[in-house]
Amino acid sequence: MSRDLRVLVLAGGLSYERDVSLRSGRRVVDALHAAGVQTELRDADVALLPGLRADPPDAVVIALHGATGEDGSLRGVLDLFDVPYVGCDARAARLAWDKPSAKAVLREAGISTPEWVALPHDRFSELGAVAVLDRIVERLGVPLMVKPAQGGSGLGASVVRAGSELPAAMVGCFAYDSTALVERYVTGADIAVSVVDLGEGPTALPAVEIVPRDGVYDYAARYTAGLTTWHAPARLSPAVAVDVAAVAVAAHEALGLRDLSRVDLIVDPDGVPHVLEVNVSPGMTETSLLPLAVAAAGLDLGKVLSGLVERAVRRGI
């Protein structure tokens, strides 16, 4: 079936993650081409919708990162044009994109996630920055993780190891989003689990362990060669690996996702996994985690993607 399909891969956009998205898009195109699928790379610009109307593709793969690809808005537009796409629907994307909302759903489902507080910039200023920050340190302690409530690729994220570092971390975070998520920093192994569903239900691929050279998996560590070491599969005991996979699938299902996702976790020294966030448009670059997990599972990325495309097409028939 896949050899007769025409697939449009959307990449680029206008977010801070444009360059990463373009790299992901090119990787997806190459993988699908290798699997024999006719594939075209296109930006999400003013020419997109007229093109969808005049010559709709059989399916779309969204390789856009940041708001355009992950906040549900583009998925809603594709639904308006009756164009099938790989990945979750608009409602689930909106939920996963907003980290505080997603964490609340995960906690309600009994999935461990670090304690947190979300602070919009306006409330932060109105209530008095010093008093709010002092109380956060009293309540959550240090170290803390500060990151945009909506966003990815580690942009605007930083680890706060002393209360005196918190104001600067908040300023850096607000440069990328109007709301900061401050959560208790959990020490342990940094783990990513990719979840895919090729027709037999969501399945966790082998976990990938992330070891940044400088200890923080920020934007530079993610996309600069030599700054991070990845272990695929992760160096986990068999029992912990099973637990991590089960938690990742549970998070995927709790948020109502489909086809694929990437669940980011910390496994603490006692072997307990804590979900940090869930990404509905995982990176596909040469240093991205989902392709590493696919390879660790002994699968071919092009065949996995073409299988997901076929599922999307069948949904749209």
UniProtKB/TrEMBL annotation:
Superkingdom classification of source: Bacteria
Biological process, per Gene Ontology: cell wall organization; peptidoglycan biosynthetic process; regulation of cell shape
Molecular function GO labels: ATP binding; D-alanine-D-alanine ligase activity; metal ion binding
Binding site for Mg(2+) 2: E277, N279
Cofactor(s) required for function per UniProt: Mg(2+); Mn(2+)
Pathway: Cell wall biogenesis; peptidoglycan biosynthesis
InterPro entries tied to this protein: ATP-grasp (IPR011761), ATP_grasp_subdomain_1 (IPR013815), CPAse_ATP-bd (IPR005479), D_ala_D_ala (IPR005905), Dala_Dala_lig_C (IPR011095), Dala_Dala_lig_N (IPR011127), PreATP-grasp_dom_sf (IPR016185)
Subcellular location: Cytoplasm
Enzyme Commission no: 6.3.2.4
Reactions catalysed: 2 D-alanine + ATP = D-alanyl-D-alanine + ADP + phosphate + H(+)
Free-text remark on how the cofactor is bound: Binds 2 magnesium or manganese ions per subunit.
Ligand binding (Mg(2+) 1): D264, E277
Main location: cytoplasm
Residue span(s) of domain ATP-grasp: 103-310
Major enzyme class: ligase
Assigned keywords, A-Z: ATP-binding, Cell shape, Cell wall biogenesis/degradation, Cytoplasm, Ligase, Magnesium, Manganese, Metal-binding, Nucleotide-binding, Peptidoglycan synthesis
The UniProt record lists the keyword Magnesium: yes
A Pfam family recorded for this sequence: Dala_Dala_lig_C
Active-site positions on this chain: E17, S153, S288
Signal peptide start-end: none
Keyword Zinc: no
Role according to the record: Cell wall formation.
Family per similarity comment: Belongs to the D-alanine--D-alanine ligase family.
Name of the protein: D-alanine--D-alanine ligase
Species assigned in the record: Catenuloplanes indicus
